[in-house]
Amino acid sequence: MSSWCRSAFGAVRGVEPLVVLEQLGTSLFDTALLMVVKDRYADATHPGTGTRACGEDEQQKAMSDFYMVNNLIAQLTPIVPALLLAKAGDRGWRRVPVVVPLCGYLLSSVALLQVVLFGLPIQVMFGAAVFLGISGGFCAYWPGVMTLASLGSNTENRSQVMMRVELMYGVAGLLGSLLSGHVFLLYSSSVGHGTVLLYVCTLLNLLSLIHATVLLQVRQASSEPDESSPLLLHSSNSVPAETSSRKSTVNMVLLFSAAILYGSSVGGAVEILAVFVIKEPLQWNAAQVGYGNAAGFVVFLTSFLGAVAFRRCVSDVVLILIGMLSFASGIYFMSFVTASYMFYLARALSLFGLIPLPTIRSLLSQQVPSSLYGITLTALQLALRLPALAYIPAFTKLYQRTLDWFPGFVFTLSSIMAVMGMIPISVMGCRWSRHRRSQETEATTETRHADKDN
C-alpha cells in the first residue's frame, strides 16, 4: 500500500498533471474568447436596431482583424523574455520557465472575466496579451515542459516520452473543448455569456500555477555523454571532431527549416479556422465550436497511437513525413468544406498531423548536451513564432480578400507549405541512408581485413 501511495504521489508530481490542468484552462479560455469576440462584433454590427447594419463579411473581417492583432502580440512579445527564462532554466532554475508563463495565463483569464462582468472593451485583451508575452507565454512554457520531459529520458525513448506529454495535452484539450461550449451558456441571462466558464478557467489556471510552484518535480538528466554524437549521422572514432560537429549543424539546420515551414503551415491554417467556422455555410454556435475544437484535440490521441505503432517499423524521419503528409491532405480537403460532416472528415484526414513537431523536438534535443536542452528547445519555439510576422497578416488579409469567391483558399496555401516542409526532412533522410550504407561498407571492409590478418 505504501509503495502504491509513493507511486501515485510521484505521478502527481510529474509534468503530465501540470499539462492537463493548464490545457483544460486554456481550452476553456479559447472557446470563451472566440464567443465573446463574436458577441461583441455582432453587437457592433447590429447596433440595437434588430437589423443587420453591415454584412457577415464585415463581421468576419472585424473578428479576423482582432485575432490578427492579438496573435501578433502573443507571438512577438515573448521573444526576449523566453530566451531569458530558458537561460535561467539551463542554469538550474528548471521551474522558472514554467511558473512565470503560468502567471501570464492566469492574468489573461482574469482579464477576460473582467471584460465579461463589467462590459469592458474587447481591446482590453490586447493588454492581457502583452502581459502574457512579457511573462514568456507559450514560447517559454512549452519548451520548459519539454525540457523537464527530456531530463531523465534516454535517446531511445525520448520521442515517445514527448509524444506522451503531447497526448496528455491533447486529451485535456479534448475534454475542455467538449465541455466549454455548454458551460459558456450557463447563467447567460443574469451575468452574461461565459462568466461561469471563465470562473472555472481561472480556477484551473490557479491550480496549475500552484502545482508548478509547490509539487512539480525536476528530474536529473540521465547518464549520457555530455557531448552527444549527432543523432542521424553518428561518427566513428576515425572521423575528425569538427567534421562530426559540422554534420550535426547541418542536421539542426534541416530540422529547423522543416519545423518553420510546417509550423507556419499549421499556424496560418489554425489562425483562420477559428473564424471560418462562424460564417456561412457552417455558422456554428458555442457548443459546435467546442465540438470542433475537440475534434482538433482528438488528433493528439491518434498521433500518439500512430507514433507508437509506426515506430516499430520506420525511423523518426519517416514518422515526420507521415505526419506532414497527413496534415497536408486534411487541410487541403478543408478548403472545400461546406457542411459540418465535411469538417470532421477533413479533421480525420489529419489524424497524424501532430507527429512532426514533437519528433523534431526529440531529434534536436539529441543533438546537444543536456545543459543546452532548454535554450535549444526555446530557440525552436521562437523560430516557429518569428514567421508569424509574415504569415498571420498574410493569411488574414488573403482570407478577407477571398471571402467572396473561395474562402478556403488559405487552406490550400497551407497544404502547399506543409508539402514544402517535407523537403528538408527528405534531404535528411537521404543523407542518413547514404551514411548508413557508407558505414556498412566500412564495416564489411574492416571485417575482411580482420579475416585476412587472422
* CATH third-level topology: Growth Hormone, Chain: A
Q: Give me the count of strands.
A: 0
Q: Provide the CATH top-level class.
A: Mainly Alpha
- Average pLDDT figure: 83
Query: SSE order in H/E notation?
Result: HHHHHHHHHHHHHHHHHH
> What is the radius of gyration?
23 Å
Topology:
Blueprint lengths: L1 H11 L2 H31 L10 H21 L2 H12 L5 H23 L5 H11 L2 H14 L7 H27 L3 H4 L3 H21 L25 H36 L9 H25 L5 H19 L5 H10 L6 H10 L7 H13 L2 H14 L7 H45 L1
Helix pairs in contact: 2-3, 2-5, 2-8, 2-10, 3-6, 3-11, 3-17, 4-7, 4-16, 5-6, 5-7, 5-10, 7-16, 8-12, 8-15, 11-15, 11-16, 11-17, 11-18, 12-14, 13-14, 13-15, 13-18
Kindly describe this structure.
The protein is mainly α. The protein has a single domain (11-46, 55-217, 247-430), classed as Up-down Bundle (Growth Hormone, Chain: A). Helix content is 76%, strand content 0%. It is built from 18 helices and no strands. It has helices at residues 2-12, 15-45, 56-76, 79-90, 96-118, 124-134, 137-150, 158-184, 188-191, 195-215, 241-276, 286-310, 316-334, 340-349, 356-365, 373-385, 388-401, 409-453. Helix 5 runs antiparallel to helix 7 (137-150). The longest helix has 45 residues, at 409-453. The protein is globular and about 90 Å long. It starts with a helix and ends with a helix.
